[in-house]
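testing teh design pipeline on a random one, pls ignore if ur not involved
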């Protein structure tokens, strides 16, 4: 193939994207509760060992591009859109007005707001540091974010306490730090109750997000299960207002099964919000787009969520790769992520209604009726053949994933 001059590359991307097929029209995409984060689209590709590869981009462009794709909801950190020094000042009010106007112009809704309590130097010792002024500032930041949420019409507030931890042990008493962290969440909930009255809106749903490592070496609340224990610890004044925002990859990072982690949140009634992405077990937070690494696992996750009528947001918390251009972020990265989600969601519907899986599942639940239910040998024998269905169901799910249930076949060996 001849070299492709720079001016012809976008046309090539568009043609090959079209050739991929499987895309959904924006109107179809809008029917799903999918949210696009400001920080995901604006991610410039930077990291500790990585210089940025893309130009900065503001909320006007992100919201307009999301709208064109058919992403109907938008989420943001306070400092994604308002510089730290301008928070709570006149500039904040003016920016909020501009965001409201931009959302309205493009028909998007703000679904979630989140406070940045991990990036700025003020959080060097975490959002629940020893110095009372840091914690007072943290409480104010959370309350201010809740206010921004009400003003933008959000339903959810997310808290990822990224720097709640340490590099070296001994300087802090973890029990004290957890109490102080609870004070911050309590301040956010109390502020919310006041603000909700003031704005005549329901209070927000407050969602804790765990990540097992990064940016601290040791994390005090590393998993969604740790967060559930924290919510139930008695330290929160309004535990009923607080639930989880699990992130798919964050559960994988500690070696957990995301589907099982989601199940534990579901039985606790705490699955409020869900960050969707992909990646690898026991690696850092690579935030790859949904389904590019573990499509079968994702299908399983969505079967669970569909079966239990999860109706919260699916937040596209991934980072377009550094190799993707600014053009590619909206021409390839976001539309393809949304379309893979929709396809996997619809496929999950196929799994739930598949006659083979249905009959196998019912047979497993019916059991084999042993003559003596208190005799271990008889109970084992009664289920001996039925249990083969576990593997058969897994096989069927792979068939559904690759389309064999709809007749896709290969002529190998004929
Ligand atoms: C940060 C983190 C994400 C969280 C964001 C919410 S911040 O990007 O890596 O997983 O969801 O604050
Ligand atoms: Mn996340
Ligand atoms: Mn992540």
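output:
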């Amino acid at each position: 193939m001849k070299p492709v001059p720079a001016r012809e590359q976008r046309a090539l991307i568009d043609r090959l994207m079209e050739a991929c097929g499987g895309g959904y029209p924006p109107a179809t995409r809008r029917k799903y509760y999918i949210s696009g984060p400001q920080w995901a689209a604006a991610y410039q590709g930077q990291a500790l060992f990585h210089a940025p590869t893309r130009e900065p981009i503001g909320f006007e462009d992100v919201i307009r591009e999301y709208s064109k794709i058919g992403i109907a909801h938008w989420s943001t950190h306070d400092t994604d859109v308002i510089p730290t020094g301008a928070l709570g000042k006149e500039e904040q009010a003016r920016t909020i007005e501009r965001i409201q106007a931009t959302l309205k112009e493009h028909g998007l809704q703000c679904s979630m707001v989140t406070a940045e309590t991990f990036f700025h130097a003020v959080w060097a010792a975490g959002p629940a540091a020893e110095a009372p002024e840091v914690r007072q500032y943290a409480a104010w930041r959370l309350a201010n974010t809740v206010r921004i949420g009400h003003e933008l019409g959000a339903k959810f507030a997310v808290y990822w306490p990224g720097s709640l931890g340490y590099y070296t042990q001994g300087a802090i008493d973890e029990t004290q730090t957890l109490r102080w962290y609870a004070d911050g969440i309590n301040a956010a909930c109390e502020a919310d109750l006041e603000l909700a009255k003031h704005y005549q809106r329901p209070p927000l749903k407050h969602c804790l997000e765990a990540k097992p490592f990064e940016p601290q070496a040791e994390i005090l609340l590393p998993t969604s299960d740790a967060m559930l224990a924290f919510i139930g610890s008695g330290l929160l004044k309004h535990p009923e207002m607080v639930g989880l925002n699990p992130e798919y990859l964050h559960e994988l990072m500690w070696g957990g099964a995301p589907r099982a982690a989601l199940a534990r949140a579901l039985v606790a009634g705490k699955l409020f919000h869900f960050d969707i992405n992909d990646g690898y077990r026991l690696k850092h937070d690579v935030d790859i787009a949904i389904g590019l690494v573990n499509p079968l696992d994702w299908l399983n996750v969505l079967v669970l969520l569909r079966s239990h009528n999860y109706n919260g947001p699916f937040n596209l918390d991934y980072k377009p790769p550094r190799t993707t251009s600014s053009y590619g972020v909206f021409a390839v990265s976001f539309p393809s992520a949304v379309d893979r989600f929709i396809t996997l969601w619809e496929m999950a519907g196929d799994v739930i209604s598949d006659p083979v899986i249905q009959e196998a599942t019912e047979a497993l639940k019916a059991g084999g009726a042993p003559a003596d239910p208190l005799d271990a040998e008889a109970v084992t024998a009664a289920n001996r053949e039925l249990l083969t269905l576990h593997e058969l169901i897994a096989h069927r799910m792979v068939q559904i994933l690759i389309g064999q249930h709809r007749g896709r076949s290969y002529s190998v060996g004929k």
